[in-house]
Amino acid sequence: MTPKLLIVDDDTTLLRFLSDYLAGEGFEVATAERGQNALRVFYQERPDLAVLDVMMPGMDGWELTARLREMANIPVILLTAKTSEADKLRGFRLGVDDYVTKPFSLAELTARVRAVLARSGSDRRQEALLTCGSLSLDPHTREVRLAGDLVELTPTEFRLLHLLIEHAGEAISQEDLIRKVWGEHQLQSRSGLRRYIWLLRKKLEDDPAAPERLITIRGFGYRLIS
Would the pTM count as exceeding 0.90? Predict the structure, then answer.
């Protein structure tokens, strides 16, 4: 299957060059000039990797990375004119897979894209099925099943459940859940987390008001048990 890339940059000339070059290298390419447009294109195209410019008007590359991370575990390469270590560390804290500083050669970017796709594909193949009692989560296919029945989750619900089932039986603090699901840069309130816990319980519990699987640890956080 031909890998599909999403390229986002407000420089239309660079965007066209990148699109034409990467298409010539055998990739399927979708493009967007703004962050909001990129979200729509992502929903429509479901790319395998995103290449994002950092400095864009409106929704910049940092925010766009966070929004994409809420929807899917897609590999991300950031393009930026900034070279400071602080900026690079910020990108890696967001879960960015690589960081390319402008100016760059098209051949270099292509090599980076191939390397990230190879790593992400290997990582997905190595991810094992996660289970907790009758509940199972497949990180590769992104399928969740309860007693064999498919459970439909939103991307954020999936990321939250993924973290909980990875640590099944352990109590996880609200702070850790917020930080690991939404990222350190995202200002997500505890009430927002409680809302997503409630949404998960509606899909996983016989009685969401009296949960037996996703338990509240009073004054601390939550625990998933079998």
Answer: no
